[in-house]
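Structure first, sequence second, as always.
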C-alpha cells in the first residue's frame, strides 16, 4: 500500500512521534493506522492514547441530579461552532434534553431520539432537535446520554469549563451530609481533571492487562537488550503497576493533596462522617472527544468564499 503524506501527518497527530518514525511505522504495517500506533508504542515512540488535540467538535455537556440525590443524568449535545455553544437558546435546549434523560427508560441514543418530547408530546425528541436546528441555523446533534440511579447512597455532579466536561459520581454510603457531598464533589473534580478509566483494578479486563504487558515487554526488550529475563519481567511489572495507578481512580494521586491517593482521602472522609464511603461508578463526558472536525487552510477557505 502506498504511504501518503496525509497518512504520515495523521499518525503524527495521533501519537506525537517524529515524521520519519511515523513513515517507517506505516511502511512496516502496510498502512494500517492502528497497527502503526502499536508499532510506535512498542518502540517507545508513542503514548498509549491519541493526543487530545484531535478533539475538535463544539457543544456542551450538561448534568442534572434529583433533589434527593438518587437519580441523575448527563448528556452531550454538539454544535458546529463555539459561538452557538454559548448561545442561551442552545443551552436551554440542552438543559431540556438532560431533564428528558432523567425520566427516560431508553437503552440507547436511537431509542432516546424516538421518544416523545416531554415538553410537547406531539413530536419526538428527534423532531424537536430538527426544530431547534431550524431556529438556531446550525447543525446540532444529541450525541449521547447516561442515566444513573443510586441504590445505596447518592449521585454528585460536576461541570467544568462551562460545559466542556461533565461528570457524575455514584457514591455508596449511609450518610448524605455536607461532608460526604463535598467529598463526592472533590472526587468528581478529580475525574474531570485526571480522566481515569476505572474505579479500581478489579474492573480492568484481563485482555487489557495482557495486551499492555505485551506492549511493555516489547518496549523493555528494545531498550534493554542483553539483560536477564527476570530483570526485564520486574521492569514490566513496575511499569504496568505505574500505568494501572494512573487509570484507576482510587489509586490515583489525589489532586488536592499530593500526599494522599484518592482511596486514602476517602478513608479520611469515612472517619469524619463515621461511616464507610466508596465510589461505585462514574461517568465522564468531554465535549467532542473522539470526534474530528474537518479543518481547512484559512487562505484556501477565504479564496473559496470569494470564488463563490
Amino acid at each position: 500500500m502506498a504511504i501518503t503524506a496525509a497518512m504520515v501527518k495523521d499518525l503524527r497527530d495521533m501519537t506525537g512521534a517524529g515524521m520519519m518514525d511515523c513513515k517507517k511505522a506505516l511502511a512496516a504495517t502496510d498502512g494500517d493506522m492502528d497497527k502503526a500506533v502499536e508499532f510506535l508504542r512498542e518502540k517507545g515512540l508513542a503514548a498509549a492514547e491519541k493526543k487530545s488535540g484531535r478533539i475538535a467538535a463544539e457543544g456542551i455537556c450538561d448534568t442534572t441530579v434529583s433533589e434527593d440525590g438518587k437519580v441523575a443524568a448527563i448528556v452531550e449535545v454538539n454544535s458546529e461552532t463555539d459561538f452557538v455553544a454559548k448561545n442561551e437558546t442552545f443551552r436551554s435546549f440542552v438543559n431540556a434534553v438532560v431533564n428528558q434523560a432523567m425520566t427516560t427508560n431508553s437503552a440507547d441514543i436511537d431509542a432516546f431520539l424516538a421518544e416523545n418530547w416531554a415538553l410537547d408530546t406531539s413530536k419526538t425528541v428527534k423532531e424537536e432537535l430538527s426544530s431547534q436546528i431550524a431556529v438556531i441555523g446550525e447543525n446540532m446533534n444529541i450525541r449521547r446520554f447516561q442515566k444513573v440511579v443510586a441504590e445505596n447512597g447518592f449521585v454528585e455532579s460536576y461541570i467544568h469549563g462551562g460545559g466542556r466536561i461533565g461528570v457524575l459520581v455514584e457514591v455508596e454510603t449511609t450518610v448524605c451530609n455536607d461532608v460526604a457531598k463535598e467529598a463526592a464533589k472533590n472526587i468528581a473534580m478529580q475525574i474531570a481533571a485526571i480522566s481515569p478509566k476505572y474505579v479500581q483494578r478489579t474492573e480492568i479486563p484481563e485482555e487489557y492487562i495482557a495486551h499492555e504487558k505485551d506492549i511493555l515487554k516489547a518496549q523493555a526488550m528494545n531498550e534493554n537488550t542483553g539483560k536477564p529475563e527476570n530483570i526485564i519481567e520486574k521492569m514490566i511489572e513496575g511499569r504496568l503497576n505505574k500505568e494501572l495507578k494512573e487509570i484507576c481512580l482510587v489509586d490515583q494521586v489525589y489532586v488536592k493533596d499530593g500526599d494522599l491517593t484518592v482511596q486514602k482521602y476517602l478513608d479520611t472522609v469515612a472517619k469524619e462522617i463515621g461511616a464507610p464511603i466508596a465510589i461505585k461508578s462514574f461517568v465522564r463526558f468531554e465535549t467532542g472527544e473522539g470526534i474530528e472536525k474537518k479543518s481547512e487552510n484559512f487562505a484556501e477557505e477565504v479564496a473559496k468564499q470569494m470564488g463563490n
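Margin note: Strands lie at 58-65, 71-79, 116-117, 120-124, 140-149, 153-160, 165-173, 277-286.
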